[in-house]
What does this fold into?
Amino acid sequence: MILSGFSGNEMYCLAEKGWAPGSIVVGNSVQSLGFVGGISSGLRTIAGGEIENLTQLITEGRHAAIQRLEKEATDQGAHGVTGVTSDLKQITGLNEFIAIGSTVKGADYHGPFFTTACSGQDLYCQTDAGYEPRHFVMGNVAYALGVSRGVLGVLRGFAGGEVKEYSQMYNHTRHLALERLENEARERGANAVVDICTKILPIGAGAREMLMVGTASHHPAFGDPARPVTSELTGEELWNLARMGYGPLRLLLGTSVYSLGFAQGIGAFIKRMARGEVDSITRLIYEGRSNCLHHIESEAKAIGADAVIGIKVFIYEIGSSFVEVMAIGTAIKRMTGLSTQTAVLMPQAIIRDRDTFFDETHGTKERKLDRT
It folds into this structure.
């Protein structure tokens, strides 16, 4: 009996590449930060920046869960696991790291065991475009804003506009997570990381985790770059780019933290009591977007990109009167040696599965038989 997390569309796509679906596999690790670690993390939270011992704890926990997932899969005789997720649950003061995925087995496969973050549909698109999956990889940073940095930021925030101390810290953590993802992929012999998913997760009072996960892969057209190419584009987007002769260069991030300012805050509050546009906030957010896009454009030019595609801009509040504006996109460039195995991408590789289970009590919705 097979208990699989794959949908019908995923199974169809996998079968087209000679893969048979297997059962769901799970790995977990429950860990405690400990008394000493808790104290040092608390002190580091006051100072701000990366909480290194907490980063190490989370990294070890996530990797331990992945290793146990891999052992369960190999014990079943699987050739690979796809759709791998890495999650963190808090249980009565302890941290459970859990990894879940679905196994696959190929009738004529003789390569090494692999794990991927992608769905069955994305795996079809990537392999058809020349990407050979190697391993599920991650990069993370546990960090805190910090009281000392916060006080300085608040003082600067009275005047309004960008708060450089916040922007620098947030930019550092986001790029540090990307660099660690790239390093882990390089250690696996990969020259590309695709399927990158970026999350910012709460991990206690005043602390966050910047987490990036993706699929370390190898593509013969990329050669041996100094650092693996990175992309958060979907499988069908990568396929379309390869069909047109383009490949990804790097995932680009731009972050700016802005303060509304004390005086502007009062003005905006008064303005909200009447109808009409709140000019100060309009200008603030517009400037923040422009600044983030400028960061991405500058980085793209520096690495010789032809364009940056798939740009998304996120805006959310940080405490009172502060907002973070973050832009993410993938730099691409025309390359030789890129092609696809098939001339037309089949519909099953494009159709996305619809949600059928909704948990309204938690304000979230989960896909039926979701792997998470």
Remarks:
- The longest helix spans residues 52-75.
- The chain has a mean pLDDT of 85.
- The two ends are 21 Å apart (CA to CA).
- The chain is about 35% helix and 35% strand.
